[in-house]
Give the backbone structure.
Amino acid sequence: MDHISIKELLSKKPIGTTATVKGWVRNFRSNRFIALSDGSTIKTLQAVVNFENTPEEVLKKITVGACIKVTGDVVSSQGAGQDLEIQATGVAILGESNPEEYPLQPKKHSMEFLREKAHLRPRTNTFGAVLRIRHSLSFAIHQYFHERGFYNMHTPIITGSDAEGAGEMFNVSALDKKNIPLTEDGEVDFSEDFFGKETNLTVSGQLEAELGALALGKVYTFGPTFRAENSNTTRHLAEFWMIEPEVAFADLDDNMDLAEDFLRKVIKFALDNCADDIEFLSKRLEDEEKTKPQAERSEMSLKDRLEFVADNNFRRVSYTEAVEILRNSKPNKKKKFQYLINEWGVDLQSEHEKFLVKHFGCPVILYDYPATIKAFYMRLNDDEKTVRAMDILFPGIGEIVGGSQREERHDVLLQKMEEFGIDPKELWWYLDTRKFGTCVHSGFGLGFERLVLFVTGMTNIRDVIPFPRTPGNADF
Ligand code: 4AD
Ligand code: MG
């Protein structure tokens, strides 16, 4: 390469040498000072233009958004917040940018505005930081599992089954839309379709990961998952990435231990490896908090919040205990909802989850949920009312992880499927594992974007994935 990245330049500090950098102009002040970004770091590099060796037509084209190449002497800088700068001996325009048309101006844009400019928003400080942290978390996750003897398993994206049994799937079909074949009953005849049956985009790689765990011992998936749930919230995407470890011979306690250790370690990794970006986002969040009324402001900075979670144990509470706590809590009239739950067996709303996290002041692991509100594959407890399920609730996020010990007994699983209206013929291969060498096993799913939300302190899940897919939005 004929140039050096700004990140490398700022870390090596080769004062007194000549260097070439390439990047995009963030700002151009007084016709002399260029703030250059190449995305390798949150930091911009100041390049000082020399009028004498910069032709007028080049000078004219140094505009915000233009891509340029700067060669010059690396000198120490007098400017606040920067160690060095480049005294340019040569500036070349690599790609012009018409300042009248370029949507990103050197000012603060709203998140809503930037969502409409998803093709350019990675060039902003905020999205640059988010994307670098996203990368680091992804790397930390693979490293975590690799170092502990897990094998990464690639599970299918197109599947013939509904892993969660929740019916929130995107149909995959290659049928001729103008000439859809119908059965005698007037239903779509998928036997004429590409795969000879009805297929969908996967909602979870869990069932296939279980097959992997019952062969390789410890596996994990890290892939895209799709849900056609029409939830227009700040926590839901139609396309999101999920990490799903699955471990043979692990019970629910082992599963909770793994999930907690895993979350704390990857958050610690981000703190250790993304300090500049976290500091920037911490400051950003602080500014945002200042716009809120005093009572609603968060007492902890982003960095403190991450350190707290990385350094402290999570609180484990059974569903039954949680319901007891909610029952004894005072209803919150001001917010027009009640924390009160009167009935054992109902699913918790996100407001209840938030209340519990606040109540304990730390991440909470809820376990042993009523069987009727959880998926068919979860291990039934001896009370025959609850299952060995767990959800991890995070401050400001709510549910970040969902997992369970799996029902390993063939007869019980078959009965559960029947109760849930799942055709055993559809999942014959899954049932087979319970017939041939079954064993206790457990796993969980972490919503990757919810983790990125937590670590970046962003408030909307659409702002932590490069190209969000939500109801009515798949433009880019
Ligand atoms: O709780 P869920 O539905 O669990 C499963 O899919 C299990 N098969 C996981 C397992 O045991 N292997 O989803 C797991 C996590 C949630 O806790 C949440 O973090 C995330 O996936 N998630 C979503 N994230 C963004 N947008 C959505 N629509 C999400 N739905 C679930
Ligand atoms: Mg869940």
